[in-house]
Amino acid sequence: MKKFTLLACLVLLAVHSALAKITVGASLPDLASIASYIGGDRVDAFSIARSTSDPHSVEVLPSYMVRVSRADIYLKVGLSLDQWADQIIDGARNSKLRVVDCARGITILEKPTGEVDASMGDVHPEGNPHYWLDPRNGAIIAETITEALAVVDPAGESTFKANLAKFQSETTSKVETWKAGASSIPNKTIVTYHSSWAYLCHAFDFAVASKIEPIPGIPPTASHLAELVKVIREGHITSVIQEPYFSDDGANYLARETGIKVLKLAPSCSDTRSESYFDHFDRILDSLRSVKQP
Asked: pLDDT category, 126, cuts 50, 70, 90?
């Protein structure tokens, strides 16, 4: 009887180990969504920031530390965007946590030349950190995540690699479709609020004529908005992208003065589902295509 009980316990333990999922925390929903895609049923992923919150400044709550204390992997954006994550990771006191810098292998845009100081506003010394908004970078992020998952769960390596190959193939196919759709927009020059959209514009050949922020992190002045009105009228620009967590005042003023269409778009996808990362590009590009051209 004792032998039977011991054998039953060992079987239950083996079953539990086989069914146990890797818990992946991430600074942004985009990174968690890619982890969900690569990990499939072997992964539970969560995000600290929401798509509607400013990823530069997230309030650190004790509940975040508790969640990360139970995680196996944490995915950081890096490039000084999510410095708040360091406080969460430190507070979690999780010695087994594997912290992954998802900027690894990415070609970074807008690296400052020379010394960066406070007069330049919220400029990131290592370059623009919004790299996930080029879907081709999503494929690089997926490779980084695949490597991390395989270290934590070697038994799932073949699954992760198969899902990576599928992700990369889907990315290639979707980029072609998105580019074809973007090419149908007559005027691909836009205005943005913040410098969130450099990678999206680089991927799909949009041009940013100007930004509502005169310098990163600084709200617009009346004179700057007046200059933007001239830029919009002279360039026949039809779209301005406004992040949901910045003030609407500047974009609404431009809309009243010029008739420009304000597109309220978040730089991050809506949630951590495996399909959410790709769905986000559909929404962004559909919104840009929907704007009536003069």
From this structure: confident
Token pair, residue 224, equals 């700057």
40: number of CA atoms within 13 Å, CB side? 15
Q: How far is CA 1 from CA 5, 12, 89, 289, in A?
A: 6, 16, 46, 71
Q: Which residue has the higher pLDDT, 194 or 217?
A: 194
The span from the CA of 126 to the CA of 50, in Å, is 24
Give pLDDT, residue 215. 86
Say what angle helices 29-39 and 157-183 make with each other, to 10 degrees. 130
Give me the count of residues in the chain: 294
Nearest to 138 by CA among 287, 264, 283, 279: 279
In whole angstroms, give the CA distance from residue 72 to residue 156: 14
pTM confidence score = 0.91
Separation of first and last alpha carbons in the chain:
84
Q: What is the mean pLDDT of the chain?
A: 91
Tokens of residue 241, six digits: 């992208």
Block residue for tokens 């000084």: 80
- Nearest CA to 34 out of 139, 175, 136 is that of 139
What's the number of CA atoms in the CB half-sphere (13 Å) around residue 279?
13
Please give the domain boundaries of the chain with CATH numbers for all domains.
20-105+120-176 (3.40.50.1980), 182-290 (3.40.50.1980)
| pLDDT at position 148 over 80 | yes
Tell me the C-alpha distance between 170 and 174, whole Å: 6
